[in-house]
Specification:
- The protein is α/β, with parallel strands linked by helices and about 270 residues long.
- The protein is about 30% helix and about 20% strand.
- A hairpin with a 1-residue loop joins β8 and β9.
- The termini are far apart.
- It binds adenosine-5'-diphosphate (ADP).
C-alpha cells in the first residue's frame, strides 16, 4: 500500500490546558481531495497549523511526507484564512503570484524569465491567466482568492492546504474556485477547510469532521455519526433534527441504516435547557 501523505496518530493539542483536539487519527493519501469541516471553534485551523508545523503536537504523532511537520515546506502550498487582507493591495496579480517564490527571500520584484513562466503556469492552472496585469484591489473576492491559490501553486506543491477559501465568496466565485481545485492534476493532494457542509456534494474524495475529535467519512457523503459529532443528537420534532434530516434528504449525508435510525430515535436531546 502507498505511504500516506499525512498520517496522524492519537494527536492531542491544548491551548493553556484547554483541549482543542484530542484522540485525532487521520490518514490522507496522495491525490485525495479532502474537505475538513466542523463548527467554528472545533479545531480545524489548529489541525492545519499542526500539519504545517506551526504548532507542535503535545501528544501523539504527525508525519507529513513521512517526516515531522515543517521538514518539507517546498512540497506544501498554503492558502491561509482571512485572505481579505489582500483587498486593498495595489500590486498586480502576477506580482502577487510571484511572491509565492520570493517567500522568505526578501529580494523585491526581480524575477527571471523562467520564474515568470512558472507564474503563468500557476495562473493558468488557477484559471486566472487573463487577470495577470490587473491590480488585486480591482478584482472580486473570488478572483483574488484564485490569485492566492495560484501563488500557492507556483512552486508546484504536492500538497495544497487551504483554510476556508470559500468564505465571503459569492456562489459563482465559489464554483470557479472548486473547479480550479478539482481540476488540479491527480498528483496534487488538496486539503480544504470549510464550514460549508454543501461542499461535500462536490468532488471531494473524503470528508473529515472536526469537533475536538475527528471522524472521517471514507467517501464524499457525511455520515450520521459525523453530524452527531458536529451538532449533537436531536429528537424528532426539534428544529435542528429537521435541519439535519434535510441534509440526509438532499443526499449530503449517507442515509442511516434501519439500526442507526432506531438508535437515533432513542438518543437524548443535547440542547441545554432554557
Ligand atoms: P476552527 O478553525 O474550527 O474554528 P480553531 O482551531 O481556530 O477552530 O480553535 C479551536 C479552539 O481553540 C477554540 O476553542 C479556540 O478558541 C481555541 N484557540 C484557537 N487559537 C487559540 C489561541 N491562539 N489561544 C488560545 N485558544 C485558541
Amino acid at each position: 500500500m502507498q505511504a500516506p501523505i499525512i498520517e496522524i496518530c492519537e494527536l492531542a493539542y491544548a491551548y493553556d490546558n484547554t483541549p482543542a483536539l484530542s484522540g485525532v487519527n487521520v490518514r490522507i493519501n496522495r491525490g485525495d481531495f479532502i474537505a475538513v469541516i466542523g463548527p467554528n471553534g472545533g479545531g480545524k485551523t489548529t489541525l492545519m497549523r499542526l500539519i504545517l508545523g506551526l504548532l507542535e503536537p503535545q501528544q501523539g504523532q504527525i508525519l507529513v511526507f513521512g517526516a515531522p511537520p515543517g521538514s518539507n515546506p517546498a512540497r506544501i502550498g498554503y492558502v491561509p484564512q482571512h485572505s481579505n487582507t489582500t483587498q486593498g493591495f495595489p500590486a498586480s496579480a502576477e506580482q502577487v503570484v510571484l511572491m509565492g517564490l520570493a517567500q522568505g527571500k526578501r529580494r523585491g520584484f526581480r524575477f527571471t524569465a523562467s520564474e515568470r513562466e512558472a507564474a503563468d503556469r500557476a495562473m493558468q492552472r488557477a484559471g486566472v491567466l487573463d487577470l495577470r496585469h490587473r491590480r488585486l484591489n480591482e478584482l472580486s473576492g473570488g478572483q483574488r482568492q484564485r490569485i492566492l491559490i495560484a501563488r500557492a501553486l507556483i512552486t508546484q506543491p504536492e500538497l495544497l492546504i487551504l483554510d476556508e477559501p470559500l468564505s465571503n465568496i459569492d456562489p459563482y466565485g465559489r464554483q470557479c474556485i472548486l473547479e480550479t481545485l478539482t481540476g488540479l492534476d491527480a498528483h496534487t493532494t488538496v486539503v480544504m477547510v470549510s464550514h460549508d457542509l454543501g461542499i461535500t456534494a462536490n468532488a471531494v474524495t473524503d470528508i473529515i469532521a472536526v469537533n475536538h475529535y475527528a471522524l472521517s467519512a471514507g467517501g464524499s457523503k457525511l455520515t450520521p455519526a459525523m453530524l452527531a459529532l458536529m451538532y449533537g443528537t436531536h429528537e424528532a420534532g426539534c428544529p435542528v433534527h429537521a435541519l439535519l434530516q434535510q441534509m440526509v434528504d438532499s443526499a449530503i449525508v449517507e442515509a442511516p441504516t434501519a439500526h442507526a435510525q432506531r438508535t437515533h430515535a432513542t438518543t437524548e436531546h443535547t440542547h441545554e435547557p432554557r
